[in-house]
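Sample pair:
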Amino acid sequence: MKSDIARPDPFTKTKRLFRLKMLTQSGCSYANPLTIISDRERKIGIAKKERFMATLALLEGKTLDVGCGKNELINIYRQQGGNGIGVDIFPFEGVDQVLDTANLPFRDEEFDTVTMIACLNHIPIRKRDKVLSEANRVLSKRGRLILTMVGGFSGWLCHKLCLQDFDQDERGMDLQEEHYGLPRKYVIEIASKNGFTMVHHRRFCYGLNNLFIFKKNLNKKSSRT
């Protein structure tokens, strides 16, 4: 008797097996093969968990998450007693405010921490300077910008290996203005151009992702164009 259950095509099965093998051999704390496939059903996938593990301990005071998506980071921070706001230009479920991140409605130096988690590459090229400039404006003098960004090739590969590409499937991607990832040198240079100085960098998530910590360069004004 033939089963009515649809079976994945060979390419999908190959992607799943590759993903399982990569995770189980990486030392990832979430690499139990029995739970990996269901992680997306819990609305926080493997990559997001790794990003949150890398960034949550760095959040201090009032925090603004730019490009927050479904706002998981800020919700976890609030559960830990933190104070934060998640904003995005796309009306994801759970976002606190849907707004233009290049024109933030907040006071100068209102936030102690600004986060940009895996979102700089999705900001249109023509608006990246303004978004970073606004992040600089609302950040306190002693505040920190916490930014994560996958590299260009790694980002492309991860998108192609995903069983479902939420960036493209849920909100769409403009590949003329967005990128799958960004080189580390580019991130440092565009942040510096907009009034930030890098104080720390490390790789995480099997060496594929980058965590940056920036402080405000008080001797240099950001480029507000």
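The longest helix spans residues 10-24.
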